[in-house]
Design brief:
By secondary structure, the chain is mainly alpha-helical. The chain has helices spanning 2-27, 36-59, 61-80, 85-113, 117-148, 153-156, 158-172, 187-205, 207-210, 215-237, 251-281, 286-292, 294-315, 317-335, 344-372, 379-414, 419-448, 452-458. It has 18 helices and no strands.
Length: 459
């Protein structure tokens, strides 16, 4: 049930991309305002993950999960019947609120429900599969629904899934009371961190339209940083902090979040630009592009669901994480040499398989390491932090690398280079930078988790 909910949330972040042209035509979005169909969701989702994760610890994770699912499902209905652009943007923002509430506590619930290491490894493997492969599945489903029926159904499909998930959750999830609001009811802190994260995500997603050195980006970025710093200062002094800073004393939790941010920054940029390469350079249709991404999802599924838990039990999380990062680096390196006259089978498919296998091994190991030292009363917070790291890392990686790729492409196009060649050069630069991010993540993982295996053996 938790995996079904997570898949629905992840699908919703990518399923919309393929349908954007149809949405623009039907509801009259301008080219500049169309991005808010994506941004409204991302700002609410990324801004509320930390707060809702902590609320799960305070008032009960089951309660927050159910409330989030109900809000998300109701907002999906409103998205599906939206009659103008304004209604759709507002509904997407509300969707983000519901998605944040249910997603923030989901990983913490997995950890709490499966305390035995072997069972937990299997559960996290399944959970990480839907998180990692959901994006590829969303591209396929979005293309099929938009082409076969209409864009409305990319939202309406959430209704039966959401209703079923709520019904099952009421039956199979035991009620938990939480530690009580008095243990962390820091209202000013909640306002500061929510405003700071929302403003940070907004600043990042608007970089493409304003530029990194514009007054808009620098001004809002500085304000976002001030709000986050003010939140941290308050948490250090508050009697009942919303985010107890002791959580960062865990080397594994802090290190896992840093590694995750670098890895997700690279992977988000990869997913975005490989789709553009397939569409704009190789000339695949929207549906064909979705199908072309399936080998990555299938590889993640096989490794996460079948092999990951067994290999981790045999060798430990650190070696599995490092091996997965090596495979991811190999896949990105293959993409860094793609050609304008390349082919899917020779230039893209081997990279997708390496990336899928590597991610299938790396992500469950990283999740396990990241949640290992979280206290029972902090699992919702740790889960929300992990999800927040993914959102911020993905937004940063996509924004920075998209600007680099676009700058490279525009410069070559202005000098008379054919469009396909210029586009490919921009994508190659993107993948080269992504390779550097994965390499740094690997070094950081090797250093951060250097002593874990010995500790496991002694235990």
């Amino acid at each position: 049930m938790l995996c079904a909910q997570t898949l629905m949330i992840v699908l919703d972040q990518t399923i919309v991309n393929v349908a954007l042209p149809s949405i623009q035509q039907d509801l009259g979005f301008s080219p500049s305002s169309l991005a808010w169909v994506i941004n409204a969701y991302g700002i609410a989702f990324g801004g509320l993950l930390l707060l809702t994760g902590r609320l799960g610890d305070l008032i009960g994770r089951r309660r927050v999960f159910l409330l989030g699912m109900i809000v998300f499902t109701a907002a999906s209905l409103l998205c599906g019947v939206a009659w103008n652009a304004e209604v759709l943007v507002v509904a997407r923002f509300v969707q983000g609120i519901g998605g944040a509430a249910s997603s923030a506590v989901a990983l913490g619930m997995v950890v709490a429900l499966f305390p035995e290491p072997g069972e937990r490894a299997k559960a996290i493997g399944a959970f990480s599969f839907v998180q990692a492969a959901g994006g590829s599945i969303g591209t396929v489903v979005g293309g099929v629904l938009t082409q076969a029926v209409s864009w409305h159904w990319i939202f309406l499909i959430n209704l039966p899934i959401g209703v079923a998930a709520v019904a099952v959750a009421l039956r199979v999830l035991a009620a938990d009371r939480g530690v009580g609001l008095a243990a962390g009811a820091d209202v000013p802190g909640g306002v500061l961190i929510t405003a700071g994260l929302m403003l940070l995500v907004y600043t990042i997603v608007e970089v493409d339209g304003h530029g990194w050195t514009s007054a808009h980006t620098l001004g809002f970025g500085a304000l976002a940083i001030i709000l986050v710093v003010a939140f941290l200062v308050r948490q250090a002094r508050a009697e009942h902090p919303l985010l107890p800073l002791r959580i960062f004393r865990s080397r594994t939790l802090s290190g896992a979040n840093l590694v995750l941010m670098l890895l997700i920054a690279a992977m988000f940029a990869f997913q975005y630009h490989i789709v553009l390469y397939l569409r704009q350079v190789l000339g695949l249709s929207a549906q064909g592009t979705g199908l072309a991404m399936l080998p990555a999802a299938a590889s993640i599924a096989v490794i996460s669901l079948v092999a990951s838990a067994r290999v981790t039990a045999r060798f430990g999380e650190r070696p599995v994480l490092l091996g997965g990062l090596v495979l991811i680096a190999a896949g990105v390196a293959l993409l860094a040499v793609i050609r304008a006259d390349g082919s899917y089978v020779a230039d893209v498919l081997p990279a997708l398989l390496a990336l899928g296998i590597g991610f299938g091994f790396a992500m469950p190991a990283l999740m396990t390491l990241g949640m290992r030292d979280a206290r029972p009363e902090d699992t919702g917070l740790a889960s929300g932090l992990f999800n927040t790291t993914q959102q911020v890392g993905g937004a940063l990686g996509l924004s920075v690398l998209a600007v680099l790729a676009a700058t490279r492409t525009d410069g070559l196009a202005a000098s008379g280079v054919p469009r396909a060649v210029a586009l490919t050069a921009g994508y190659r630069l993107n993948f080269g930078v992504a390779l550097g991010l994965v390499a740094v993540a690997g070094v950081l993982a090797a250093v951060t988790f250097a002593t874990r295996r010995g500790a496991e053996t002694e235990a």
